[in-house]
């Protein structure tokens, strides 16, 4: 009798628990974000990561992620240099285009930052980039900024 009652109880548990309708919320939006802002922690005192690169690196490619459904056509997104976090001079210390393209049926774009070799002048400069997006794709509020710190080697000591 106990076995029959146990089996009957299990059958009831499975019967009533298997039919519970789950209404999970679905997000249907889309945003763009810097991959480095997702995988790196923010630098001290700011809300974005700082990536250190040498002035001899040439080009730094930053991945931009599309978070949401793929698009059926190319999406051109814009980004800007934020003056409050930038000490470098555009055209001298770095060059950016201001746009990146997410190809149709893709999740990624590349922001290219060209860093010319300014020689051994010492110190470092910063460039803070912020995604703006476009009419269809807003930037992710938490992952829209990345700062590059461009280091320059010190000049040789006199007489060395």
Automatic annotation (TrEMBL):
Leader sequence segment: 1-20
State the UniProt keywords alphabetically: Signal
Q: Does the keyword Signal apply?
A: yes
Q: What is this protein called?
A: Calx-beta domain-containing protein
Tell me which InterPro entries the record gives.
CalX-like_sf
Does the UniProt entry include the keyword Cytoplasm?
Answer: no
